[in-house]
Write a structure and sequence with these properties.
Layout (H helix, E strand, L loop, with lengths): L3 H7 L10 E4 L3 E7 L8 E7 L10 E7 L8 E7 L3 E7 L7 E9 L8 E9 L14 H9 L2 E8 L2 E8 L7 H9 L3 H5 L1 H6 L4 H11 L9 E3 L17 H10 L5 E4 L1 H15 L3 E11 L6 E6 L5 E2 L5 E13 L10 E5 L16 E2 H6 L8 H9 L1 E8 L4 E8 L5 E6 L6 E3 L1 H4 L6 H13 L13 H5 L4 E7 L9 E9 L5 E12 L5 E14 L4 E8 L1 H4 L8 E10 L5 E8 L6 E5 L8 E8 L9 E6 L8 E5 L7 E8 L6 E9 L6 E8 L1
Parallel strand pairs: 1-8, 4-5, 11-12, 14-19
Antiparallel strand pairs: 2-6, 3-4, 3-7, 5-6, 7-8, 9-10, 13-16, 13-21, 14-15, 16-17, 17-18, 19-20, 21-22, 23-24, 24-27, 25-26, 25-28, 28-29, 30-31, 31-34, 32-33, 32-35, 35-36
Helix pairs in contact: 7-8
GO molecular function: metal ion binding; protein-glutamine gamma-glutamyltransferase activity
Cofactor: Ca(2+)
EC number: 2.3.2.13
Length: 680
Amino acid sequence: NWHLKENARDHHTSKFSSKELIVRRGQAFLLTFNGTEQPEQNLTFIAETGPKPSKPAKTQATFGISSTVSKESWSAVLQSTSSNSVSISISSPHNAVIGRYKLSVQSTSSGSSSPASLGTFVLLFNPWSSDDDVFMPNKAECEEYVLEEFGIIFAGNQNHINSFGWNFGQFQGDILNICLSMLDRSLNYRQDPATDVSHRNDPKYLGRVLSAMVNANDDQGVLLGNWSGKYEGGKSPSSWTGSGEILQNWKKSGFKPVRYGQCWVFAAVLTTVLRCLGIPTRTITNFSSAHDADGNLRVDEFYDASGNHLDRAADSIWNFHVWNESWFSRSDLGPKYNGWQVLDATPQEESGGIYQCGPASRNAIKEGDVDLDYDCPFVFAEVNADCMYWNYDPATGKKTLIFSKSTVIGQFISTKAVGRDDRVDVTNDYKYEEGSKKERDIFKKARKKLGLEDKFDPTAPTPQEIDQKPDISGNFKVAGPLEVGKDLNLILVLANLQSDAKTVNVNMTAWSTVYTRRPVNEIWKDSISVTLSPKEEKQFPIKIQYTEYQQQLTTDNTIQVTALCHVEGGIQVLVQRDIILDNPAIDIQVLGEAKVNKEVEVEVIFTNPTDMEMMDCVLQVEGNDLLRGILEIDIPPLKASEKSSTKFKLIPSETGPKHLLVNFSCDKFADIKTFKMVNV
């Protein structure tokens, strides 16, 4: 008798729906044998994992009955005996290899009889145990970062943060087995299975291996990335609502990469896998995130004379980027680097020859200790890089600095609150206050450690270029609603900063982009010539009609508007704004009280805000313990301004607060998301 219920309760594994024993390391579990005639002191247990179990690799343990639990090794302690049964408590060491074990027993009194197999069990990390590398002293944080299956991911841009729900679903169905098979498909396992398995006691090792396995690069991992804005042959990254469907699809297809992912999808899937294995993990969103491809802590952006943002540099500044933080100690670096560690499964740059990133200690990032393992310079740049904006002439290859900024990157770094559906800002955990002396000192320290201080960089702007002062200033103001389906009204405001008149030629463009700010389709362009009297400010209204941008928009609903101002006799001024258009709202109502195993009806209401007919409308619904799998409902076409109501039934299977996630798509709007908390 494996005492599945009692052991699961004691080991915080009750949420797994498994007929197999799932326990956490460094903690005892109970077994009872019936019909044993053997005196129990003569029993020897064998626990083994991996393809070549061995004692030196700590993937095999042989242990008899002892009177006390050992912290450093496997042990068995007699709990009780009766005439025909014996109960034994088995403990694993706090640093045991995690994974699926075979347990056998051998009776030493009957000579050399071969061991009898008792079956298998799965061993996980134990954040509730103070000796474990992943120990998390705060119980509420353990609940959130290991046991919570619902998450909120932040997106948008720094002027306009939005969020959506995600179903991590780490305890659902077959997810644990898929996570274990992910480890067995890694490059490390393929090269040397026995050594790989022997390292699976170390969260640093597993975090790094899994950051590589969640993307398809190098190893036929889970998700194929696509940032083109065109997603034929797969599902658009913004259409997913949970990790379960992605992981199941990966397994069902014979482990072919699932199409398609972008950063939050990679991060959400990695959260699912690490929480499933017992490593406390959360998603982090960094707004204005730098992708520094050449490791110089500087990001270069190029614009042509017409104001088009050129996609010619490997460097880029993303509206936002999502990565992970996992909680564990760093025996390799020392205790001051314990705690949250950055892992990133989005394939951006190679590390050690493959697309993986981390673990980088968050404390090391804050202190500028970029020489520490792993990938600290890349993560440091994501939140700290300086930005340079250049005018580039494709004909001559000449580039001219327009301006540089050191306070743009790494804003409003966000994660979901513990136990609440709110945003928490963690920017101060990544860096000292922007613009403070301490922050600049840390930046210099990082440059020095990377050997950038002493090296001449021919691509860097000269001090003269950096110090030049513009004659005019400009910005885009929003005049009206920023909603898909409505015209976009903006005002370009230009101000003369000098006491003599200035003539300015302004080239303006608007492009649809993906959230990485990569331009996809041109929407609009215009140019004007302006004379500004001394100290004068002028406003120029701009209108981009819905019909102009509707076909060009990507699923990110982002438009980059740029005005490149050529000031006669002065330096150029770049005015730009990344605009996010909101989707129309969708409303969920639960009609009645939600009770376990009783049907309850849910209504989803949506109104077509445009004056065009909406076709191909599909509603997708998921929610753990509320319905099995994913519900897809086709909705008839909606005429202009028409309201649709869709009803469906749920049969909740468990009590407590549960989350229902809804995704609505049609030919005019992509992936309108919302979620509703349902108290069962």
